[in-house]
């Protein structure tokens, strides 16, 4: 029997969700911070100031299994949950809300385009904007049907698209992969824009978008389902689900990530019958992300952990702003065209992660300061204002989560 929870009052926020979103941003910057594995190929005078070859190897394996690709699913789940929250706040008609939400997704897509083309080709927000429109199609469906569609898209459909991608050899299509290194090393912004414009459509749309759109759609629907069933409102009602996610996510989920690491490093070759392994790998990726969610929610229940994890609340409340600012910081620290620190190829992975932690630490301090003076992040404030503009529901309250 599905349990429903009463949503919070209009104007309230769910702090554990903001904290989880903020912590997920830490995973995002660790997964995306620029790093050059072949240091000597770029700068022959590079020295291991912090770290050693053995530590670097262990850190690479740890990152592949526990960080890489583990936090995008969490963001997708929270994106779907945010739609559930907004839907629960409707005071006008559904058609008015649909108009508002379509405008909101269009603006998010445009923000993603500016981020992707002007700053960094690895933008994910455009995919969220496109996947978000699916919610307007299915949100009236029975919850059981939404859950089934979420699971189908998240695992078997994603695995099939991955296999099809490999069969069509799309990963080798259309550009010289050495251009990615040139992107970091060029000291000319016009050249940077040219490389970015070449890579972005091929990588993010031809190669990755089929997989990303299918997988993120599944995770967004899963987040919406969790919101509608009340999971984040009152996790205490879902202790059995939390225990199950922790058990299977910490075992089969991690094993799936080990399998993905083995595939991406060439230790396992997907061919013939072994191609079916990708279904287990994708399923493991979902389970491991749910393990992180469940463990976070469980720890947040305890006062001491809540005090610690609560530090991430302001970071999560302005997640879009912080996501974009992480790119700006990485440009200043690592890329060459801003003519700032230009650290790409000069620091070890250990040092790279320490820099990422410093960036995130600054964002945490800044986010706390910001919310002492304002109620929303700067990008979130502009996004909401433009979404309301010329929409019939501009006096209707939709709360962004």
Automatic annotation (TrEMBL):
InterPro entries cross-referenced by the UniProt entry: Bact_Transport_Assoc, DUF418
Pfam family, one: DUF418
Keywords from the named record: Membrane, Transmembrane, Transmembrane helix
Domain of life: Bacteria
Chain ranges passing through the membrane: 19-37, 71-88, 100-118, 124-139, 146-168, 211-233, 245-263, 275-297, 318-337, 352-371
Residue span, DUF418 domain: 226-389
PANTHER family given in the database record: INNER MEMBRANE PROTEIN
Name this polypeptide is given: DUF418 domain-containing protein
Organism this protein belongs to: Rhodocytophaga aerolata
């Amino acid at each position: 029997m599905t349990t429903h929870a009463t949503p919070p009052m209009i104007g309230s926020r769910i702090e554990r969700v903001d904290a989880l979103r903020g912590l997920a941003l830490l995973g995002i910057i660790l997964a995306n911070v620029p790093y050059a594995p072949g240091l000597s190929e770029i700068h022959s005078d590079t020295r291991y100031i912090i770290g050693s070859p053995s530590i670097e190897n262990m850190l690479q394996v740890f990152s592949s299994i526990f960080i890489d690709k583990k936090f995008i699913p969490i963001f997708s789940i929270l994106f779907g949950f945010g739609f559930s929250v907004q839907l629960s706040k409707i005071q006008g008609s559904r058609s008015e809300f649909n108009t508002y939400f379509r405008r909101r997704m269009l603006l998010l897509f445009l923000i993603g385009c500016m981020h992707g083309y002007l700053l960094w080709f690895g933008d994910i927000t455009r995919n969220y904007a496109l996947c978000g429109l699916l919610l307007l199609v299915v949100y009236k469906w029975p919850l059981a049907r939404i859950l089934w569609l979420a699971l189908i898209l998240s695992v078997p459909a994603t695995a099939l698209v991955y296999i099809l991608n490999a069969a069509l050899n799309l990963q080798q299509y259309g550009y010289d992969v050495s251009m990615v290194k040139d992107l970091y090393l060029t000291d000319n912004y016009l050249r940077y824009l040219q490389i970015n414009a070449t890579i972005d459509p091929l990588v993010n749309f031809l190669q990755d978008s089929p997989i990303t759109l299918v997988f993120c759609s599944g995770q967004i629907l899963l987040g919406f389902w969790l919101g509608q069933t009340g999971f984040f409102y009152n996790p205490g009602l879902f202790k059995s689900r939390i225990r199950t996610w922790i058990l299977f996510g910490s075992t089969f989920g991690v094993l799936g990530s080990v399998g993905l690491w083995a595939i991406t490093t060439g230790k396992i070759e997907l061919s013939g019958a072994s191609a079916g392994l990708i279904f287990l790998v994708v399923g493991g990726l979902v389970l491991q992300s749910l393990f992180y969610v469940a463990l976070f929610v469980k720890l947040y229940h305890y006062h001491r952990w809540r005090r610690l994890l609560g530090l991430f609340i302001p970071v999560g409340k302005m997640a879009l702003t912080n996501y974009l600012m992480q790119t700006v910081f990485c440009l200043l620290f690592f890329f060459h065209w801003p003519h700032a620190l230009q650290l790409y190829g000069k620091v070890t992975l250990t040092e790279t992660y320490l820099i990422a932690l410093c960036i995130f630490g600054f964002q945490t301090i800044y986010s706390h300061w910001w919310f002492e003076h304002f109620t929303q992040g700067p990008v979130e404030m502009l996004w909401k204002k433009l979404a309301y503009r010329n929409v019939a529901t501009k006096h209707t309250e939709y709360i962004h989560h």
